[in-house]
Design brief:
It contains nine helices and eight strands. With 295 residues, the chain is of the alpha/beta class. Strands 1-2-4-3-5-6-7-8 form an eight-stranded mixed β-sheet, with helices on both faces.
Length: 295
């Protein structure tokens, strides 16, 4: 699937008014459709296994032409209110094809039916059932959730993941960053109002560090690779996270893509293949490989 930045941005601009005011039912159907589209783009390069005995609904996606080189736990986005297995399989398939890893894609419980801490509890259960320490990957809400998982693990005396791949992570449900106003007219895919709705569905305490990891203790975290679009209203969620990780003594790399939008990496844009290559290289390094798989 070859999408260009210009074509995708036009499409998002047309959809923005509909997405901003649509019901959760419509948003959930749209997100599942996107996941199926991404899955089809990688169909020949991966195969998917169901995991009926896993503690949460989950599938495992494996590279089709090699033994897995490591394990990735992928926590999908969707404002904690949208996304299921079909959606998670989408970028999970991209990750397996790009990195050569076994990618586990749990479908955690969604708000408002199951508010905080249900998503965190399910993510922790999925993590603890893995056969080895993984790299954690997540976008948007899933990007915040991977850091909440790590904090919970460290606080309980458990080993942390090998690293983080965070794509437009939603790390501050209080929306305190200046970018929420500065990028209001630039962002073609997200609005502060929509994020406020998602946050209210998920928790009545957005300052809880396990809901907003940016507000918590980040010491002891493994290396992070963070991607964010330069036009996102949530840009400061990533910039502030990166800055706080560094000040906490952690390794962090931040990639700000000029002119791009929330979660842009998921669309595998023709102009941004470098991001998937960076993800593959980061995963290979965290898995202890000398070189990363050919993308």
């Amino acid at each position: 699937m070859e999408l260009t930045q210009e074509k995708m941005e036009r499409h998002l601009q047309r959809l923005k008014p509909l997405l901003t005011g649509c019901s959760l039912e419509v948003a959930r159907k749209g997100q599942e459709a996107l996941g199926l589209l991404l899955s089809r783009s990688c169909r020949s390069r991966v195969h998917t296994e169901s995991l009926p005995d896993y503690p949460v609904p989950c599938c495992r996606i494996l590279p089709a032409d090699r033994e897995p080189v490591g394990t990735i736990l992928y926590l999908h986005g969707g404002g904690y209110t949208c996304g299921g297995l079909d959606y998670a399989k989408g970028f999970g398939s991209v990750l397996a094809a790009a990195t050569g890893a076994a990618v586990y894609c749990p479908a955690y419980r969604l708000a408002p039916e199951y508010p905080f801490p249900a998503a965190l509890e399910d993510a922790l259960a999925a993590y603890r059932a893995l056969p080895e320490r993984p790299v954690l990957c997540g976008e948007s809400a899933g990007g915040g959730l991977i850091y909440a998982v790590c904090r919970s693990l460290l606080d309980s005396g458990s080993q942390p993941p090998l690293g983080f791949i965070a794509i437009s992570p939603w790390t501050d449900l209080t929306a305190s960053g200046a970018s929420y106003k500065e990028n209001l007219e630039k962002d073609p895919s997200m609005t502060p109002e929509r994020l406020g709705f998602f946050a209210s569905c998920y928790t009545d305490d957005p300052q809880n560090p396990l809901a907003s990891p940016l507000l918590g203790n980040l010491e002891g975290f493994p290396p992070s690779l963070i991607f964010v679009g330069g036009n996102e209203v949530m840009l400061d969620d990533s910039r502030s996270l990166h800055k706080k990780l560094l000040s906490s003594g952690c390794q962090s790399t931040l990639e700000i893509a000029p002119g791009l939008w929330h979660g842009y990496v998921l669309y595998c844009l023709k102009e941004r293949q470098c991001d998937l290559e960076a993800i593959a290289a980061f995963a290979a390094e965290r898995f202890g490989q000398k070189k990363f798989p050919d993308f």
